[in-house]
Inverse folding.
């Protein structure tokens, strides 16, 4: 006779009994039994996918005091083993672990309450109710369990696919009450978001963020279809790529929205500010209207300086506009996303955004020639470059001084494990290019350091003048590798933005030299 058969022989069956725990899924026909621990298996479809955060505390309690409540168990038809019926998976695993570690007979047999088998959906929902009552499930855990239960209910009833409304009714009749609206949100999380942002969802992203992402996707898709080429499929690819890029435990929907705004703005070559206003209107269900085009007046020509090459830089840059990237508009210094019109389409769309109280200034097709607009342009270019390369959260606007933007910190050290060598090299060299264009290590410390977050490694390195700390915190490659590692590998759009950013930096410095402005004061 094998051990399992022997274990069956020592099974004790008692009379139906009550239990003091009001949350237990017991039922009036439950029978008290004592089973060998080896005869019971955890429920393999337990809704909770992560380890119980209370595991160690529960283990210490069971080691000291034993099991304080019986396990509720059941048995599938034609199965020789038992499974946990409702909750108790953690306690069962701990008992097995303690018995294996100690050999103590206290953990060899366990008191149980046996419930007769009914349906698979009943067991799954019993575990879902039990875990939900304890507050130990993430949104995605609940969503997965609900849709697994939906599949079982459809198979067991033989009625085919049921609607979310019908599912809500059936779940309510089984003691798990949620509305059809929440079920729709769960469906979006399981079917659309889980393949794209698993890390964010598994880390505990809540339903509120799921609702927000869903609204953002719908609004952005509508805007893309109205303004961009490529249709639904093109936007779907953009949305999926951006979600995967920013997936992580510290998910921020604002970062995703900023990246989507950048992509749309670039696609139709208008300002991020205008796209932001349009997208916000779509999300909130407001109508945005493009007014009839009114030709802009020819502005006065900027004063030309002929004293030398340096004094001609701003004018030369303006003269090159037709050859250059036309997707960039000067941006207000006081509000990095406010726009000065630069094209007929831009004029019309910006007028549609008049409810944000922005004053549009008519300019020619040239690049800006004042510090305020040049700084706004630099910020726009820098944040776009950074967002498309996964470090958009590091770029912050700098109003009224410097080059118009700064870097909050060095890239996340976790990128070292997440990226291959080529991708990591590109991100790190791009960070150094942005640092150069924003004068992060050249600007007066008293001007730049206070603008950075208090926990920033970059701030600490600047304040302590600790070059070693900085170089140890970000991969610093041989400058001679910049061409191969960055320039040749950048996407054409990123290359144009980088060139335009460096060009804008030169404009700011030359204009400051011409006018005697101290840009860091």
């Amino acid at each position: 006779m094998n051990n399992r058969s022997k274990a069956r022989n020592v099974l004790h069956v008692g009379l139906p009994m009550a239990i003091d725990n009001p949350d237990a899924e017991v039922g009036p026909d439950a029978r008290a039994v004592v089973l060998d621990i080896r005869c019971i298996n955890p429920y393999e479809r337990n809704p909770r996918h992560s380890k119980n955060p209370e595991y160690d505390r529960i283990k210490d309690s069971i080691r000291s005091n034993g099991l304080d409540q019986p396990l509720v168990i059941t048995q599938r038809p034609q199965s020789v083993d038992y499974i946990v019926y409702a909750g108790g998976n953690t306690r069962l695993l701990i008992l097995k672990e303690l018995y294996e570690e100690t050999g103590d007979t206290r953990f060899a047999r366990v008191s149980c309450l046996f419930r007769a088998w009914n349906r698979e959906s009943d067991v799954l929902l019993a575990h879902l109710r039990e875990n939900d009552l304890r507050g130990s499930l993430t949104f995605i855990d609940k969503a997965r369990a609900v849709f697994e239960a939906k599949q079982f209910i459809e198979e067991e009833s033989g009625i085919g696919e049921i609607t979310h409304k019908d599912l809500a009714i059936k779940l309510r009749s089984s003691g798990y009450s949620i509305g059809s609206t929440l079920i729709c949100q769960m469906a979006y999380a399981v079917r659309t978001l889980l393949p794209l942002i698993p890390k964010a969802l598994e880390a505990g992203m809540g339903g509120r963020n799921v609702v927000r992402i869903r609204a953002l996707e719908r609004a952005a898709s509508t805007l893309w279809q109205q303004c961009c080429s490529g249709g639904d499929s093109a936007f779907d690819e953009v949305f999926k790529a951006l979600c995967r890029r920013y997936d992580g435990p510290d998910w921020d929907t604002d970062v995703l929205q900023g990246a989507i705004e950048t992509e749309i703005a670039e696609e139709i070559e208008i300002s991020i500010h205008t796209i932001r206003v349009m997208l916000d209107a779509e999300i909130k269900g407001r109508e945005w209207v493009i007014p009839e085009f009114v030709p802009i007046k020819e502005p006065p020509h900027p004063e030309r300086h002929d004293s030398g090459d340096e004094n001609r830089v701003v004018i030369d840059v303006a003269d090159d506009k037709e050859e250059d990237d036309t997707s960039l508009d000067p941006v207000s210094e006081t509000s990095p996303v406010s726009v000065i019109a630069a094209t007929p389409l831009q004029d019309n769309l910006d007028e549609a955004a008049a409810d944000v109280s922005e004053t549009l200034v008519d300019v020619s097709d040239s690049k800006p020639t004042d510090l305020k607009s040049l700084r706004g342009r630099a910020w726009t270019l820098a944040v776009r470059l950074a967002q498309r390369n996964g470090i958009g959260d590091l770029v912050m606007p700098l109003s009224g001084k410097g080059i118009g933007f700064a870097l909050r910190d060095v890239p996340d050290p976790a990128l070292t494990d997440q990226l291959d060598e080529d991708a990591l090299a590109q991100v790190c060299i791009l960070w150094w290019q942005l640092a150069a264009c924003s004068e992060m290590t050249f600007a007066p410390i008293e001007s730049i350091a206070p603008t950075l977050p208090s926990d920033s490694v970059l701030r600490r390195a600047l304040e302590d003048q600790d070059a070693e700390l900085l170089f140890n915190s970000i991969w610093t490659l041989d400058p001679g590798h910049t061409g191969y590692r960055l320039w040749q590998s950048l996407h054409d759009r990123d290359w144009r933005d980088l060139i335009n950013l460096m060009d804008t930096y030169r404009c700011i410095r030359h204009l400051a030299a011409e006018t005697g402005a101290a840009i860091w004061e």
Remarks:
- The chain has four domains: 3-119, 138-194, 213-283, 310-319+370-515.
- The first strand starts at residue 12 and ends at 16.
- Strands lie at 12-16, 31-36, 40-41, 71-74, 82-84, 109-114, 395-397, 405-407.
- Residues 403 and 439 are 8 Å apart (CA to CA).
